[in-house]
Amino acid sequence: MGGRPERVSLNVTDARLRRGARDIPLRPKDVAILQLLIAHQGRLVTKEALLAAAWPDVFVSDAVLKVAINRLRTALGDDARTPRLIETRHRRGYCLVGKISLVDAPALEAPEAAAVPRLPEARAIVGREAELAQLEEWFAHAAGGSRQLVFVTGEAGLGKTALVDLLLESPNVRGVRVGRGQCVEQHGAGEAYLPILDALGHLCRGLGGAAIKRRLARHAPSWLAQMPGLLRPDDAVNLRRRTGNATRERMLRELVETLDVLAREHPLVLVVEDLHWSDPSTLDALGALARRRDRARLFVLATYRPEETAAA
User: Fold this and answer.
1) pLDDT of res. 256
2) What letter does residue 278 receive in the DSSP assignment?
3) What is the mean pLDDT of residues 120-140?
4) What is the DSSP letter of 246?
5) Are 5 and 96 in contact (CB under 8 A)?
6) Average pLDDT score over residue span 100-108
7) pTM for this one?
8) Which of 18, 67, 105, 187 is the most exposed place for a label (fewest CB within 10 A)?
9) Largest Cα–Cα distance of the chain, in whole Å?
10) Contacts of 270 (CB under 8 A, 6+ apart)
11) CA–centroid distance for 223 within its chain
12) Other CB atoms closer than 10 Å to residue 283's CB: what's the count?
């Protein structure tokens, strides 16, 4: 240790981090986050600003941002406990406290107007055209009323999340209601339905969220009771009292019925990332959705690492 610190630079166009003599590829979302931190070097960047920069049209949770920040720290050789570069500001956001240079970056008119850096379209889908076309075909089936449950598998770093992002940004999917949930290592397996609650909560906070919350109140009150942040304090207390200790069977029934209702009104995409870190209840819920035979414009997309599930 000791000695002079490594020089670090970010090439936005190539989506690569240069650390000393090493070139490290980054995901497009991670590039967007890091570029915004660089634009505000030495200043707090709120979680909301980072989420808006990397996921402008998709509602995701703070947990997804935390996973992306951890990926960046790994690529940078940084440590959250003794940060040299990315410092956590508790409950507020993150701050770039070290020096990272930008290489071949598009000009930013002002920090507040920092746009999401996008790779040229041809570069973004190199080697993934067949997989993307297959996902788009399955989504088209779902949009036509034939529900789909699709798994994207692969080892860490093979681009599962990038492929999902490409699908959600494609013209036929853009603008569709998307609920996105993230399983979290060493945490998700201990909390029942964590990624599904995550996805439902962000659907309620997104476009048309008030109508979705009304559907939950009517068809899935035991789920809404698990999301008190969406309710006034008195309403949350009353709903918890009314639903009591909901059984596993009741929660599964409410979930599948509510998603069916929502998917009859509009096409609905439910994304569950890193399913290998999931809890058993979430796996049961996905199984229940897969067994439904009623028509619904529902597209469930889950990513996982097969080597992790084999070891579990």
Assistant:
1) 95
2) -
3) 70
4) -
5) no
6) 61
7) 0.60
8) 187
9) 65
10) 178, 179, 181, 196, 199, 259, 298, 299, 300, 301
11) 20
12) 13
